[in-house]
Specification:
It is a single chain. This protein is an alpha+beta fold and 117 residues long. Helices cover 62% and strands 13% of the residues. The chain has one domain. It has helices at 2-16, 24-34, 43-54, 82-115; strands spanning 58-64, 67-74. Strands 1-2 form a two-stranded antiparallel ribbon.
Length: 117
């Protein structure tokens, strides 16, 4: 159920990346190269797209509550900084807004098509 949603969202990450100073080509490149390394087929797509779009490296040793997991790295850039985290939050908000606009446009077009106009 999340397969399509994850990929549509990753595509929005790529499209919206320039709005936060990110790289669409980096997003696509890392998505294609690294997404399958992640243990989750859906989370990997989004994390890889974000890493590439923002030019950072995600993954590696990751602390989960009381469990340290060694995850594969996604992206080839440096470790993210506070500035990168702020850009990631902004990119997430821009992607949310773009998704809302896309859904609203789809609903409008569907309503017009059903009304026969």
């Amino acid at each position: 159920a999340n397969y399509v949603a994850a990929r549509v969202t990753a595509a929005l990450v790529v499209v919206c990346a320039p709005l936060v100073g990110g790289s669409p080509s980096g997003g696509v490149r890392v998505w294609r190269r690294d997404a399958a390394r992640h243990p989750s087929p859906n989370a990997g797509v989004l994390e890889a797209a974000f890493a590439g779009a923002l030019g950072v490296r995600l993954g590696g040793p990751t602390q989960y509550h009381y469990d340290l997991q060694i995850r594969p790295t996604l992206g080839g850039g440096p470790q993210p900084t506070v500035v990168d985290f702020r850009r990631a939050v902004l990119l997430s908000r821009v992607v949310q807004a773009a998704a809302a606009v896309a859904v609203a446009l789809f609903a409008l077009v569907s309503a017009v098509a059903r009304s026969g106009r």
